Amino acid sequence: SLSLSLPPSLPPAAATRFALPSPSLAAGCPPEDSVPPPPPVRDPRGGGRCERLAVPVAEMAREGAVVPAAAPADGPKKKATSSRSWILMDAAGEETILDVDKYAIMHRVQIHARDLRILDPLLSYPSTILGRERAIVLNLEHIKAIITAEEVLLRDPLDEHVIPIVEELRRRLPAMHVAHQTQGEGRENLSGQHDGEAAEEDESPFEFRALEVALEGICSYLDARTTELETAAYPALDELTSKISSRNLDRVRKLKSAMTRLTARVQKVRDELEQLLDDDDDMADLYLSRKLAGASSPVGGSGVPNWLSSPPTIGSKISRASRASAATIHGNENDVEELEMLIEAYFMQIDGTLNKLSTLREYIDDTEDYINIQLDNHRNQLIQLELFLSSGTVCVSLFSLVAGIFGMNIPYSWNDNHGYIYKWVVIAGGVSSTFLFMFIIAYARHKGLVGS
Known about the structure:
By secondary structure, the protein is α+β, with helices and mostly antiparallel strands.
């Protein structure tokens, strides 16, 4: 136990007063003499600024007051959270790296937290394509993106699997933007009778071009993984059929496990595309340019929501072709033929990848059946060998029985003055045992119990 003695010059009331920790100490402010005084910061728990103690802790200890122990550390640091890095690319191909939290992303693209949670790499969500009022939430394996009518936000742009998608967006978006500007300037010089034809020749809206890059990326990625698996699986299966060994069996087992996992991933993407193709309302929700044109057309430019102005100069970067395309399709809100053709093309590609995996699975199943047949054949050969050995054992046992009977120490008259009897007994017993063995084998072959 710790016993403290009060100085004679210090009254008990003063000691009690010094023993109580001040509110600043309770708020978690560090002692003044422990570290150099940093700039005053706001206390996250109390909401106010941390003030320095009026009485130093060392002086309190010298005067005999009870000094509260330093608060223990909060324990081990929490596990590092997922990366908050995003890359923003607009219709002109200009890039911006955003290192913001989820609330800033939610405010920028106007989506709910449950939609943004789908893109969390620490959580396991199936492949999903969600159409919201002003954005498309895209979660396809490693491709986690938010697509609006004017920009695309891609998560973790430095990931090795996401870098090809970023490069493809860099290649396509600026080229399409320049082409649209050239077409728009050319249309201004044409007569009015060609305006309708020029509008029909416009390219797809921005969100469809970004969606096409994502679908092409995931389909190409899964197809490449399937090709790699086929390259490794077929030689391993052929080697296993020629030589059954533990090493080959373990190799095929690992390949089959990889094929099962890859098949599940491909199946999820295919099911999502199929579900999207089966529902015209879901496809209509992906027409962001159409909805944007419909929201802004009744009131001109004043009807555009405030969230569009959050990125600087984004509104001025929409190409004339995208506006014309959105205005063209605005007349029929149920027309989803353009998006249906886009998704159907990649649905056929991912379905072909799934067919490759199905063919590989059938080949593995056929190999397993062939191996089982080989094992059954070896088992039958062992059974035949066991039958031969059992038949020979029976014949030898009968011969031993005769020899044992004559070898007993029992008096009998055959042994008197008949020295040749031993020779005839041995010969007759051996011949009888041999004929019995041949009879058993012939009977088994006649009944089809053993091979010829």
